[in-house]
Structures are given as C-alpha cells and as structure tokens.
Amino acid sequence: MTFTTMKNYDKMKHKKVEQVNLKKDMTVNQLVKEFENSGVMGAGRIARAANISQNMIQDTDCKVFLGFAGAMVPGGMKNVIIEMLKNGWIDVFVTTGANLTHDLVEALGYNHYQGNCNADDKKLHEEQVDRIYDSYMPNNVYVGLEKFFQQHWEKLSENKMNIREFLHKLGSLVEDKNSILRVCHDNNIPIFCPAISDSGIGLMVWGQLAKGKKISVGAFDDLLEILDTAWTAKKTGVIYVGGGVPKNYIQQAMQFSPKSAEYGVQITMDRPEPGGSSGAELRESISWGKLNSEAKFVDVISDATIALPLIVAAIKSRISL
C-alpha cells in the first residue's frame, strides 16, 4: 500500500483518533466530548455510554431499567444515583439489599468512612469496624437499624405485600429526603430487590420474626409487575452498574418481553470467560432475545465509581432540567 493510498484509506474508512486536549476549567461534559473525539479504548466507551444513555433517557417511548449492584453507597455513589432518580431518567430501579441497607444506614444519620484496604482486619473487628475494601462502616449501625424496625414494625407489617410494596412502604417511613428509598417513594419509582433477605434489612426483618412478630411479604409476587412493565413498554433501555441479581432480574424481564431492549449500557470490571452474568458482554444477550440485534449498546470496562459520575455529569450538562 502506497503512502497516497493510505491517506485515502484514512479518509474513506475510519475516523481519525483525535488526541485528547485538556483545557483549564473545562467541564466534565467537555472532557467526555474529548473522549468521544478520541473514540477508542476506555475513553471512547465512556463517551459512547454517555451518548447511548442520553438517547434512551430522551426517547419518550423508552422505559429505562437501571440495575444497581456492588458497594456503591459505601463507594460514595448514592447522590449520583439520586440525581438519576430525581431527574426522571429511571423508570424501573432494581438493586441489592446491601445498597438499600447502606442507604438506610446513612438516612439514619450514620456515615461511611475513608479507610485502608491494607488494614489489620483482626484489629478492625476488635474495634467493631466493618471494612468494604477501603470504606469503613461502624458496626453499631445495626443498633440503629434494629431500633428503626422496632419503631416502625406495626406500619411495615400491617398489610400483605410483595417486595416492591414493602420497599415503597419502607421508603415512606424514611425521614431523610436525600435517601434512595425515600426518593423512589416520593417519585413513585418502583424498587425491585429480589434478594432483599440477603442484606442487613433482611436480618432486621428476621430479627423481628425471631421475636414472634409477623409479616407477610411475597417473594415472587412482584415478578409479574416487572415483566408487565417490560411487556407493555413501546421501547426499553437497560443500564447496568455491576451485575449480579439486579442485572439478571432485568435481563429475564427483557427475555420474556416481545420486544427486546433497544439501548444498553453496562459498567463492569468482571470478565466474560467464566460464563457468569456479571461479566457477560451485552452482545451475548442478543442470543437470548434480551437485547435487540440492532440495539445501540456498549460495555464500559471500568470501576463504576469512576465511570458512572463521568457519564451522569456529562448527561446532566446536556439535558435541560
């Protein structure tokens, strides 16, 4: 190939990789736009994730499903998610019991603290400090959680409910309006948490049951609701922060729907080779009928505490609220 031919090939076949230019006082959106001009590797994927997320959010026919897993509240991501929820970007929220527990912990006035991943865990245990990598949580939060559930048990247990209804009721009892539970309640955003018993909240409910108290929460009853939401939507889009149960719960709703998702963004650090859902590339879900073969989608291989704020801040700059 001659030099002249190579130059023509550049013009005809591919966009040039633009070098990222940093400017004083540039906004996050301007930085992400620079990532888009680069267009490759992790930076290019974050830019595509911002574009695809913006498209699904602004598509008025699209129901957006957010799967939220991992230690995101201990990792400082609570307000980022609340931003998405309050702005009306999310129609269906699926998360882990752990994230809701950590959210409730902060709503009750406790905090997570900056720690050290190389700390002496035996010493931390003696000091009654729980470690989540390098984020610390005092173990006495469980005292506050138990008091909260004791105080509100009568209201929590007065009716037969499914898990989604239980979490809606729980959100109504949280006084802190900067809480994921409370924001979802106030904005009527359904929270699905199929593994709620696998959490501090689950332990608190079990603690009341162990004292002879009663509650009726159907573990399978809200499955129909998320399936119906996916089934009746004109379009669907999915955003996965981490994987696990939240991702799979949404994925099976997409599989059951006559119309698979038309938008998809996944942020994960997991690998696809072991075959688990958390590391599975989004394109794999095309084979299951969960993602449309013509969908706009991207996998962002990154720590979510880095990628998610960049994506959300860029979108916030673009969408007038």
Could you list some keywords that capture this structure?
single chain, 321 residues, alpha/beta, Deoxyhypusine Synthase, three-stranded antiparallel beta sheet, 17% strand
How does this structure look, described?
- There is one protein chain.
- The protein has one domain (28-109, 141-318): Deoxyhypusine Synthase.
- It starts with a helix and ends with a helix.
- The relative contact order is 0.16.
- The protein has 13 helices and 11 strands.
- Helix 2 packs across helix 13, helix 7 (141-156) packs across helix 10 and helix 11 (223-232) packs across helix 12.
- The strands form 3 sheets. The chain has a 6-stranded parallel β-sheet, sandwiched between helices. A 3-stranded antiparallel β-sheet has the order 3-5-4. Strands 6-8 form a two-stranded parallel sheet.
- It has helices at residues 3-13, 28-38, 41-58, 78-86, 97-107, 121-126, 141-156, 163-172, 180-186, 200-210, 223-232, 244-256, 304-318; strands spanning 62-68, 92-95, 113-114, 129-132, 135-138, 161-162, 191-192, 217-218, 235-241, 261-268, 291-301.
- It has 321 residues and is an alpha/beta fold.
- Strand 9, helix 12 (244-256) and strand 10 form a beta-alpha-beta unit.
